[in-house]
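pasting for the record
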Amino acid sequence: MTEYRIERDTMGEVKVPANAYYSAQTQRAVENFPISGWPLPLELIHALGLVKYACGVANRDLGKLTGTGKNPLNDQQVEAMLQACREVSEGKLDDEFPIDVFQTGSGTSSNMNVNEVIANRAIEILGGDRLAKEKPVHPNDHVNMGQSTNDIFPTAIHVAVASAIAEELIPTLRRLHEVLEEKAKEWDRIIKIGRTHLADATPLRLGQEIGGFARQILLSIERSQRAVIPVLELPAGGTAVGTGINTHPEFGRRVAEVLKRETGLDFEEAVNHFEANAQRDGLVECHGQLRTVATTLFNVSNNIRWLGSGPRCGFYEIQLPDRQPGSSIMPGKVNPVMCESMMQVCARVIGNDATVAFSGATGGQFQLNIMMPVMGQTTLESITLLANATDAFVDFCALEMEANVKACNDSVEKSLSMVTSLNPHIGYEKAAAMAKEAFKSGKTIRELCTEQGILPKETLDAALDPFSMTEPHA
């Protein structure tokens, strides 16, 4: 067998790797876009396979594939095509999708890549020669029936993004929320000092502080759930410009119904196909929620990093697990590497949001946005990074965190802000003067008050009870 075979498309002959399932249009794109070496995310390829399956089912049920048009298929050929779609969606042909992310802006190259692979694999399933010149299952006439890249590629992006958020990101955020909630309960009686502006403040409980982090993650789960909503409307059925030319009036609705059944997500046909084809505002909105999740995760992991600083010259109120040596020159040093990893991921996602927003704002002219491959790739990257980083953070940091009770307790009495609870008794100005005097003398607020007899002992002890300062009182 030769290294290459000759395939033909409407522009002429092309040399294609001999055993490839793809054909001429894929090979042209491989040659045209030697840009990054980054193929489309497999999640998007799998979603394209699933969308092609849904389109095939819709066309089968509408009688289009086996009808009286040019080159109708028989029932066996239709089922072979649907099986090939399934194989793409299940990742069984992942090596057949080599086209670079930075390709034609509509995603036509990758749409045709999928069409060609499905057609040739269907021929093989039927026992035919997928390398033969005549194609009983045709990539355009059959696999792409009733479709345009302009409505199918964004449909696949929506399916891939919604599925990834639901199946990858939200479960990992739930794990982190559960761990932080448990730590908050476990550490609820541990008193520590607050730090507003990174300066000493009034006491709070370590459990309250961690409970605040847990609430942030719960809100991130809710934001992730809301992120799915803008991508539930599917452009399929609009074909080239939103008019639905060359497709059945029921096609879009039926495709959405199949995808809803297959994924368990509430996909529906776009309300307005002209908007759905032309604009990617829903994807911009979706990624905006992901950016907010990234902002939260950065904040939580950075706060935990600060709380774990030490072990002797920092706060060290939380003991983080030792994961690896921290320095090539300082023996015994251990760093908060899981926090730092999370923070870098979040920085990337926040940067990705600029890419998505810019592409949505500037890439859509008239009936098409021509930035779709990079928008899809970037959004899926953000979801994968956030999900993987959160899982790693739970497994290698959050689960093994321990409270340093001594460090928490030792800081409370030293805080000059303990004087805040004396405001109702002696007034703000006198309390401020006492704080300055305590700092100058090196004494605690309690020691200074006792020496000067500011309040009766019973009143002073009640006012300076650290636990009572962690809750409001009538």
